Amino acid sequence: MTHTYANTFDKYVSDISELSREPELGHSMRKYFQFDDGWVNLNQGSYGTHPKAVGAALAAFQSASERRPDEFVRTTHPILIDKSRAAVAAHLHAPVEEIVFVPNATTGVDTVIRSLKYSPGDKIVFFDFIYGSCENIIRYAEESTPVVGVKIAATFPISDDELVARLRETIQREQQSGARVRLALFDSIVSMPGVRLPFERLVGVCKELGVLSLIDGAHGVGHIPLDLGKLDADFFVSNCHKWLYVPRGCAVFHVPLRNQHLIRSTIPTSHGYFPAGTPDPPSGKSNFVTMFEFVGTVDASPALCVPAALHFRAHVCGGEARIMTYCSALAKAGAELIAKHLGTEVLQRENDECCLHNVRLPITAVEGEARDGEAEVGREHWGVIRPWLMDSFQAEFNTAVPVVFYGGCWWVRVSGQVYLEISDFEFAARMIEEMCGRVGKKAYLELK
């Protein structure tokens, strides 16, 4: 008997079809998710969350793998992972033979940077708002290979035209000096602060100047419309567990056929590794796809849940356009409400097609000693404010709101999502105001 549990895929998609589509998005959607009573989830962006129905699919796949371990891992899993690859490939308008899964976006970025071969004079260019782990990958590559990272300074708010110009000028300057710019790494949506980049235009600059493009699209799939065929980046990776309602950790990794020969190994190198020149296996799948199919003994069940998540989005939420329109409009309105309440402002950007917005806190960073009664923080305590605020939000107010110190100011980043309404942002505004008042009283010094 083979692939006994392959029908689990169809069963849980069928179960989702029995759920009702909500006439309105907002608090009525909470019943589909797993939140504790009273928890206000204003931070979909960091770790994501998935609906109960998708969690049921996850549990079923995990159970199946325990009931008949060998059969599931060796026979059923390859069938199911191909169904997931096909589903997300159609969603992203990419050929299925160019799509595989990795655990998270950082793994995809690391896979590309470790795979490329570097010679003295090779460069990797990136903006200074890069995600921290991705900069660390470049720094490690500098230690272990001849490549050198080149950081492009850019502080928000900044126009899309200026960002594009700075990438072009940096690449051209390096090329004119005799260096070979091997790769440009940039985000689809920057993590902190949350800002959508003109990544389509940045890919165009790379094509124009003969540089490979790598998009850290951690906040991409399920967040903004994506057409990877039209985009035609050289490498693209995006977390499915942030915005697509897939369980952690799962990321889609897109490598066009023209570049698959550059990816010589998974991380870690595993059973699918093939020496250069090895013909494709008789299975009909390429060496590239086969290599990522089984990367050691790990729980790959989250990736099997992609079809269930997509079906939930289409059937219960009403489709991608409805989700994205609601979430981006709510995030913008919610951020503006908080800023008005605090008497500050929303970090301006050119493109509001984004479910993340950033609001400046009424806290002043001072070089000297902070004055009592005013929301001032002396330099010696700058590093305390972020964790103190975030821990207080969680412990006292049953919510999570990321805080970032950026451009000499503290900001909060709020997420729009289908289970939220504007009243949740009103709650957040009152909470943040109260906590900023405590900053003026130096309550953060009471930490043990």
Automatic annotation (TrEMBL):
The keyword Protease does not apply. Residues 81-255 form the Aminotransferase class V domain. Gene3D superfamilies: Type I PLP-dependent aspartate aminotransferase-like (Major domain). Keywords: Pyridoxal phosphate. The keyword Lipid metabolism does not apply. Transmembrane segments: none annotated. This is Aminotransferase class V domain-containing protein. The lineage of its organism: Eukaryota, Fungi, Dikarya, Ascomycota, Pezizomycotina.
